Structure to design on (342 residues):
């Protein structure tokens, strides 16, 4: 009775519904497929993944609901862990267990187009080795993810590509401006230990890496004519306003608007993974900074050089290649899924 009153109150004021009640409501919204991921974090790349999953599944006749990383149950038998670098224990193992619990608790579970940066703890490795064999199909966005999984677990893994490559270039009129994206620097990762940062990101001296990264960002922007900062998360905008003296666009949690912004640029400096994906989608010459291996992996597939952001960087923009081939691999995520669901 108490829960019913709260729901009725929430109809007039949705913000008044307690989070636990919201989760119950979401789990019981009619849907054929539940997709879990980090889709509401304010990160444009994560939002792009959620949109792609929902639109593609809807086109193929599946009612779909997107769940956040804390949901472990829903009222559908088909569960998908969809896209993003979600298989890791950077922040401990609780979030990893929740993600895997969600997928295996349905009748049919799939992991589609994800990254697997690695597993630091014995607990994480045990979770992977015990739970992944229960998954009906696993596709990953790069070879490194496949290797990291199969190093621990004897399970079939297919390398595809990030589902966000399925977006189309808006083909807007190009200006003479250069788009710029930098993420906040390494030492702001307060929820990661120094040991994890060093192991996963490869930065031996975090203070020096941070200082060099900021200096490189300023140096690159100083060499550009008509630079424009394009944030992919609110933290990007904060970083730019603190350290860079260039025009900065306001962060908008919109995939369409972000793609439009990049489509209007002549070329792109990219740091975030999906800033490189979007720039490639729009066919822009790029200067990629690989702050972690996933960026280097996609740069290699695009046949462009990637520079460590705290090392010496050549001021050179390179046209992307192989985009159609990568898009074909991205489509394979869904083609394989539908083959299983038939």
């Amino acid at each position: 009775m108490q829960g019913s009153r709260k729901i009725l109150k929430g109809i007039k004021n949705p913000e008044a519904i307690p989070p636990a009640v919201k989760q119950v409501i979401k789990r019981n919204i009619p849907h054929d497929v539940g997709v879990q991921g980090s889709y509401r974090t304010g990160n444009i790349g994560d939002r792009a993944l959620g949109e792609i999953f929902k639109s593609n599944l809807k086109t193929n006749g599946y009612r779909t609901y997107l769940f956040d990383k804390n949901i472990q149950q829903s009222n559908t038998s088909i569960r998908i862990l969809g896209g993003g670098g979600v298989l890791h224990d950077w922040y401990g193992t609780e979030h990893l267990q929740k993600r895997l619990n969600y997928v295996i608790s349905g009748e049919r579970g799939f992991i589609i187009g994800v990254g697997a940066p690695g597993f630091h703890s014995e607990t994480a490795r045990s979770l992977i080795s015990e739970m992944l064999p229960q998954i009906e199909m696993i596709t990953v966005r790069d070879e490194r993810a496949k290797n990291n999984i199969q190093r621990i677990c004897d399970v079939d893994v297919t390398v595809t590509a990030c589902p966000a490559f399925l977006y189309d270039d808006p083909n807007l009129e190009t200006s003479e401006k250069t788009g710029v994206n930098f993420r906040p620097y390494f030492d702001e990762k307060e929820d990661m230990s120094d040991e994890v940062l060093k192991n996963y990101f490869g930065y031996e001296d975090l203070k020096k890496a941070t200082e060099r990264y900021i200096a490189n960002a300023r140096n690159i922007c100083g060499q550009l004519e008509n630079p424009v900062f394009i944030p992919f998360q609110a933290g990007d905008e904060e970083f730019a306003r603190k350290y860079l003296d260039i025009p900065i666009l306001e962060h908008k949690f919109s995939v369409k608007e972000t793609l439009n912004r990049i489509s209007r640029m002549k070329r792109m400096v990219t740091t975030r993974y999906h800033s490189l994906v979007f720039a490639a989608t729009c066919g822009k010459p790029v200067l990629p900074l690989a702050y972690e291996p996933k960026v280097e992996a996609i740069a290699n597939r695009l046949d462009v050089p990637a520079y460590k952001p705290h090392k010496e960087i050549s001021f050179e923009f390179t046209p992307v290649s192989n985009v159609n081939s990568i898009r074909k691999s991205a489509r394979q995520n869904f083609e394989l899924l539908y083959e299983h669901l038939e």
